[in-house]
Amino acid sequence: MRKFAQKRKLINMKEHFKFYLFITLATLLVGIGFTSADFFTSPVHNFKDSFILFLQWGILVMALWSVIYLISLNKYVFALLYPLICLFSSILAYFRYTMGTTLTTVILEVFFDNHSQTTLISPILILVVVLSLLCAVLVVIYRFRNITIHHILLNSIIAFLLFVLLFNIPRIKHPLSERIPFNLYFITVQYFSQKKEALTERSVLSKDVTSCGEDQIVVLILGESLRADHLAFNGYERNTTPYLSQEDIISFPTIFSEYTHTNASVPHILTRADSLNPDLAYQERSFVDLLKQCGFYTVWLANQQPNKSYIYFMNECDTLIYANANKSAYVFDKWVDGDLLPAFDSFIQNDDRQFILMHTIGSHWYYNSHFPDAFQKYTPITNSRIVKSNTREEMINSYDNTILYTDYFWHEIINRLRDKKAVLIYLSDHGEALGENGVWLHATDADPIHYPACWIWMSPQYKADNPEKYQALQENKANHYRTDFLFHTILQAVDIQSDVIDATFSLFTVSP
Ligand SMILES: [Zn+2]
Known about the structure:
Bound molecules: zinc ion
Largest sheet: 7 strands, mixed
Helix content: 40-55%
């Protein structure tokens, strides 16, 4: 009897081992075959960097293991979901390898709305999908024929707890939400929540407009991670702005941004929200509402992905155009602001009364992705996406090269506005830390992150028509402002008058 019990225990252990080995192999099929596509192009410098990437991949595979553990507890659930995971992962990996494309909410928008799905299908894609499904079906058949699970309740509890634990640690959840196969779920959820946000109702501002000013063009370049003190025209020792230093621009080097990352900062810049009424950023429309009321044709040119916090304003504009809709923080090929110029050209010819907002990628990390090779003046540059694997000198060189390119981009925009009646406002969403007190990048707290670059340029005709405005900026350029100035300043720049404009915030108001 005892011998029989021992034998039974041994068989049970063998069955357990076989089950866990099965989950592991089913996980590795997806993990090596598809998830790894998101890691191959990551710039790495040495063995240590590769090891860190390998660990990040390992954490992703562990999360995947918990999912496959959970679904494999029931063979019918497994037969349905495992082939679906393989199917979608293979499609996402195919586009990642062949086109450097990652799944974004904009890609989903194009997919759902343009009905152009068939043009993306190729014989190789079909082959990849068929092979993946074949492997998935073999795994499912094996699950049906060879896997017996004991202690199903205990296994269910362990699998569920592991799944909940891994998906509730922000440091794990965030990176996996943008990677295969989890991005399919997380990006789809984001897509629908952004769509809902874009269509919500917000308080109208335009009913208060009392005067609309003359025909003119106003351009707002919403910058990214550009700190004021790295611009040559603000006194930086390197000549990072050879073009703009030659222009008659008025720079405001002491603008304070309370928020240190894009998603928090952009809604506050575009709306009437200020430190006393921060919630207005999520309740009211932006200044675009008043521009439209005054007959401005409004355009949003995006070189960044939309976010729930500001997608409302993107849709507020008459036209919304994306450059680089297929890029995310985990894609490391070139992603530059010059890609916005063709769209800018197509609109700037059309109307005498228009507003163009360009949401640029500017100086965002990974810096080397955001300037063409021709702008690699400061060397050596970074060669790893692991920040700490680069020297401070390499980080600053790469960062300054992004500014050299941004300066060229500004010059291109100014050249297109020179013969028009136009005003151009540049404001970065926040600054960037470059190793001060060991702090890097943004979305954290350090002084340089709170001081974004900001300047204004006026075309000769605009300046001739508005000498008092030019004079006011000159008088105010050393004053301290918060980014709250933008809403009121941009409306005053085109002479719109309304109760919602508070002149005390405006850069055009001269103190007596
Ligand atoms: Zn930003």
